[in-house]
Amino acid sequence: MKNKLNKIDFLAKCAVCENSLDPANITLLEEKEQKTTMHISCSKCNSSVLVFLSNSQAGTLSIGVATDLDRSEVRAKVDGATISADEIIDLYQFVAEEKGDLRQLLK
Questions:
Q1: pLDDT digits (tens, 9 = 90+) for 58-107
Q2: First and final C-alpha spacing in the chain
Q3: Rounded to 10 degrees, what is the CA torsion of 5, 10, 13, 14?
C-alpha cells in the first residue's frame, strides 16, 4: 500500500480544513487491477471521504465522496453481502406491479 500512497500525493491534505493527512488514517478498502477504494479521515476536523482511484491508458481518475461513515462502518458495508441480479429483478417487478404511492412504499 505504501507505493500506492506515494502515487496519490494530491490526497495529502484534507479537502475541508487543508490539514496534512496522516497515512495512518487511510484505510484501503478494496484493491483490484485498475481500481482502488479508500476511506480517509482527517484527525483535525474529523471529516471523512471515500476515494475511488481508477487507472487507465488516459491516466489516473480520482473521485472523492464526503461521508459520515467511519472506517469500521465503511468496512462493514464493503465486506457485506452484495445484491444479486435476481434481487434487482425482483425489486423491479415489485415496483412495476405496485399500484399505490411509491413514496409511501419507500418510507
A1: 888 888 899 998 888 888 887 777 788 999 999 888 888 877 677 777 76
A2: 41
A3: -100
Q: How is residue 40 written as a grid cell?
A: 480517509
Per the structure, how many domains does the chain have? Answer: 1
Q: What is the pTM of this model?
A: 0.63
* One-character DSSP codes across the chain: -HHHHHTTGGGSB-TTT-PBPPGGGEEEEEE-SSEEEEEEE-TTT--EEEEEEEEETTEEEEEEEEES--HHHHHHHHHSPPPPHHHHHHHHHHHHH--S-HHHHH-
Return d(Cα 2, Cα 104) in angstroms, integer: 48
Domain carrying residue 35: 2-106
